[in-house]
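Exercise: predict the fold of this chain.
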Amino acid sequence: MQRSELLKAVKVNKVAKRKATIKRSSTVCFCVAVALVIITYVMTLPEVKRSLQDMYAWFERIENYIAGYDKLAAFGLIMALFAVKSVAAFIPFSVLFISSGMVFSAPVAMGVSVLGFALLISVKFLWGKKFGGGNAHKLAVKSKSITRFMDLKGKGNKWMLVVLRFVPFVPVGTISRAYGATEMKYLPFVGLSVLGFLPRVVLWSFVGSNIFDPFTPTFMAPIIVLLIISGISLLIWDAVLD
């Protein structure tokens, strides 16, 4: 077999494995969503609700304790955590968004989370403007499909940025830095990034606001929607890079 044919076969094999992994991941998301729907229904049964009374009382005590937190100090701490995440990726976004929802009402928590998210991506974007997109950007440029869709050597594909923010597993910091290395302007970058990420901000904020009622539809529903969004976005991502 010639070298070109061998490389082509390897590439086809990699694509097949990627497609299989994405399909499995999306199937898991949909299956877990269905399981949570069933669990949510079971939790609404009177007999089950009565058996959970003690646990609800414990959650209520924690909620009352957190309600006494100084809101300004909590806002400062959450912003500081977003700033830390801009240089240390070990803090999950879900934890930050849920924390906002635990301290603030859902609408306020959304605003706090959007500000924190904007802070984080701004740091990465400006870093990319000054120092380039980094190793991940260099690897991405080697892929013709990624370079074409993201327009990494030009002004940056604006709507591809929205899609990338919508897909849960795509690294936020890496994409921000990569777009910083393009000719895209700062304000469109932030606006489109927030637009694509907004569904997760809204849903996780509601999860945080209802975290002390964990066996209710108001808590479970956002998680179910998040799983469905994750499954759909995985399929979209697969179609985009096909």
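Check your answer against the key: The mean pLDDT is 79.
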